[in-house]
Amino acid sequence: MGIGSWLGLWFGLSIPAILAMYLLKRKFLDTKVPSHLLWQRVLKNLEANRPWQKLHNRLLLWLQLLAAALLVFALMKPFWWAPGGGKDHVVLVADTSGSMSALTIPAAGQPSQERLEQMKQEMKDFIKHEAKNSEITLLSMNAEPNLVISREKDHSRATQAIDSLQVYFGRASYDETLSLASALTREEKDAEVIVFTDGQWRGDPSSIPFQVPVRVFSVGSQAGFNLALQQFGIKDESGRKTAVAVVKNHGKTARSTEINLYGDGRLLQTTHTEIKPEVALTLTFRDLPEAAVYRAELEVDDAYPADNEAYAFSQPNETPRILLMTKGNIFLEKGLQLTGAEVVKMALPEEDSADTDPKRSTGTAVPDHLPDLIVIDGTAPLFTTQGEWKKLLDRTPIWTLGGSGSKVNVSGGQPKLESHPINRYASYNGVYFSSLLERKLPDWATPIMSIENHPAVVAGTENGRPRLSFLYDLKETDFALSAEFPIVVHEAVSWLTESGGKSLGRLTAGRRVEIPIAADTAAARWVAKGGMAKSMNVPNTEAETGDKGINALQKVPPVPGLYALEQENSAGKKTEYLAESSADPYEGQWGETNAKLAAIGQAADGKEAAANADLGTTPAKNNGDQSKMPLLTLLAGLALLVILVEWGVYQRGRSI
User: What local confidence, expressed as pLDDT, does residue 87 receive?
Assistant: First the structure.
């Protein structure tokens, strides 16, 4: 038996208070009255009392003292050591990494189930048998440790929290979650950490110090084989597409499989192969027709379907073609060429010799090869305002630099940048700007760089085509001499020529990736397009936002599959970036159990700490472990019973 709180002794003052009540109780004498004339005198005598009388053996006194003593003892939170009840605080660490979605080998006549489901059942059994009197804390693994519940006394809620656990297919925070469990139990005298895992553990768990006992239970270690589609890509060969896939057998025996190749959902080729154990096999698919999205699929019934398919995205073969209209700007021309684009320069006449009559300027023909981007350095020629040239500019991305009009002096002003893909690597530190064009901004324009509250660079979309305008002349600034100039030119060309959407490639689930967000984007969301995400009916996920709108840094959806990040502007125009969310490759590399799991709780110098580890198969009931069984309810019930008896004695008076 033990005492939980000695503070309850303060209620013990009620015992001397009860005794004082009996000591100071008035004692009246029985008096015979021979005449009514003597009533007044008798009454005066009856007022006399004996305050400090001797305590008599009264049942009511003993009952009151017993009730007070029981209440005092109950407030001290006494407990009884009982076997099998669990520690006062139990921290459950749930391995929810991607490998926990693997199917276990079923017993005879039993269906197979995920390791995660088996773990949930074993955790609930553990609470029922070994932690029935414990406060439960539950931790799971995502990109960061996830505290699901903390010191929950209601075990029905703890069971609901266990049922809510889901597999995280990204890079799981193994040791970080153990570190949190260590911190939560630091300096606790009656706590325990229980780790449920399949034994596949990245990192070094033995280096994490614990001050409480630690036990490790292995869940679903017996699982079937796994074939993994490790890599998949598309390349061009002589004008035809070629796909390359790498398949590895993470098993101990040879396995055969069929690999199906799809293009935009249509089956293109199929091949059958056998893969030796622990061997990666490279397969090549040639002469593929053009498609935007290619998908490789392993047609095999293995235990880990998360790595049975992969996606590749077709990229444009042609380099961007840029039409540069300029009176002569060697820095701008070289900067455009450094982007790898094909630059065609159209020399413009000087202002004093320029033809100001657009009717006499229609002789300038549009290029035979239509450009992907038009860059206008200075004032746009008059012939671009009508005819075929106007149509060309309306349907082509345009970048203008400088121009005519009134100017405002901003000498020495410090640029202020807004979040935009063009500003991704720009700072403009040390760059001198002399003046800016002062003009009314068009409806599509949003300032992405300002100096002294004057727009210096604006970007946006007009008629579905991107627009970019530098409201300063490069000759009136030393920006062209800055090391950032070719970088800004590269980002500007990339944004202008790819703003209609592109592929983001293959990304690990749950990681953060930088995505170009159009300046006029009003809403963005992740939409499942194929693969496991589509089959599991993963709902649309709204993109993360900040104080300045949609964040450029977004988290890849956690369930593997094909996704599109849809962007929509206020006019309802949508663009999308395709991306494949893939499971962490480590989770499919099944092997031996991490031997360092058994060393959890040992000190760094190799000496045993207060903790210990026991790598078992299932958490069997441990009758040898003792736990605190609180006596508060029992004592409170006894005190209530005594009070009821006392009330009966009080009602009967001296008859008892």
Answer: 84
